[in-house]
Amino acid sequence: MKDFYNLIKKEMKELITRQFILSLVAMVVIYGMMGKFIGGVKEEADTKPITVSILDLDQSSISRDFINRMNERGEVEIEVINERSREEALERTKERGEKALLIMPAGFGERIEQKKAAELEVYSIMKGMSMTSITGRSVMGVMNSLSRQMSLNIIEEIVPDWEAADLIYPLRAKEFIVVEGKATPGNLGMIEGFAMSQSLLIPVVLMMAIMYSGMMVISSMGMEKENKTLETLLTLPVKRSSIVAGKMAGAAIVALIMAGIYMIGFTYYMSSFTPDTSGAGMTAVRELGLMMTPIGYLLLGASLFLAILTALSLAMILGLFVRDSRSAQSMGMPIVLLVIFPFFVLLFKDLGSLPLALKVVIYLNPFAHPTIAARALVFGDYLPVIGGMIYMALFAATLVYITVRIFNTDKILTARFSFGKRKRDI
Amino acid sequence: MDKAIEVKNLSKNYGKVRAIREISFEVDKGEIFGLIGPNGAGKTTALRIISTLLQVTSGSVKVFGYDVTGKADKVRECISYLPEEAGAYKNLSGKDYLEFMAGFYSRNSQEKKDILEKGIEIAQLADRIKDKVNTYSKGMTRKLLLARALMINPRLAILDEPTSGLDVANSQGIRRLIKSFARQGTTVLLSSHNMLEVEFLCDRISLIAEGLIVETGSPPKLKEKYQVQNIEEVFMEVIK
The whole model's pTM is what? Predict the structure, then answer.
């Protein structure tokens, strides 16, 4: 045990360098700044009223009343302009930096009076592709709302004894969300934030932890070979299994620290996009039993641990072929691909809706199982979680066995991918 | 049992390349034994096999009676190996590196402290011992690695080109150090290109060329046998 701790300590000292700490701090700061910036931009886009120019070519009492009502709603800032043509009005709107131009053509009021649909011309002015340029509450939203109000007024005028809203909306939806036979009032939009955290946030953190662990071990092997320390290490009176375990544990600890810090930064970043999950949405989530239980968290942790163990043992085998730090980067690619593939597939599709062949491929990939577990546990479905854990445990055990076997041979020093002539010091 | 190393009919193949071809030699306890030969002769392969790093293709190697294949763990308890192109962990200080290594050879903290103190004394790096290894020159790193190899008082020190990268003064110091360790009972197996070094250090040598041992004996006897002035000339005579 003493040797094992000695090796872990060394691994951590080697991996946690000043550059490593600086890059972690930089990553968190960048995520934090991006989150704050994007959150601010989004808030501005959501809350700041858009400015609209209105050209009233009709000049009727109805058109003026329409403008007044728009003004009263306060959702748009209105600037009434008096240009003579559409082109001039558009030029003026652009000059003033406003986002839309609304033109009420001649005859607008007359058509309304005749109970006929009147046309309004809406020009949205696009200045760029940035979020603030293309988002924001649309003028059409305000228009539609006013249009509805006008309908209600007209109906009340024609049939004063009837409830205008009932005539326009004779059907009312009473929405429920149903999960595994449990129903609760609400709609899917209410739990959007929760679904986002389940489908994106948790898998991203799992993916990072697994990838970092694998890359750490490969880097560690790369450094051993580059610094020419491996030979000395292998002649020490230490069991090769302790060397393997020490390397894996040291790398796992560093990777988990990295993933934890990454998670903090990423959560902050994502919170600027994700809809609020408080209030009615979370009540619905709780009532549907979608909250993960303590046992669920425990199983998710165990699933992640087994996936990390699998990544570490696979990385140890790949690390045998590494010659230096640079080749370590490319040797880590198989792990990165294996981790990323199920992540992207499961991001867009549920496992159940995949074709059988793809489903089998996903199940065979051990790194898919923490993501599968994260989703299954929300629905209280323990079977695929436990099945995945058994599969990962067997997979990892086989790889660890192979790794220790290889460490007990001279393949550890002689194994390499050869793409051309090689030199060997004999 | 007076033999520290017994090598019998040892062969090692790398695929189709025959690096070592049925070599045999023995090293007595407390002896300084040199494997001498040009690049690619098979010196490093032989040392790596004795150090349990490489596996034997055929033949047998015993270190203090322990077979390097069957009792590798026991062999590793007896040896300390210094590879020719060895390095140290660059993100550790020289002291941290020695402390890390001392941890594997000590049973308690006092023993670890004693080994560490000895390592620092052998390394002779003064205050630079506290600096990170990545700030060391090649010579300083070599001194640190030699200190690591000797600080544990190994029963068998296997040194591949021990003075490689060191200047004349430092090389002389290292040679004296190796001699003093041998006097205290450490058996030394070394390889070297430097024939003068070999003559000064070794009690006996084996000349190796193209994977074969072509001559074995003490430097004075070999010089006498071939009627030459130094080992370099012996070597040239042997491979003629």
Answer: 0.74
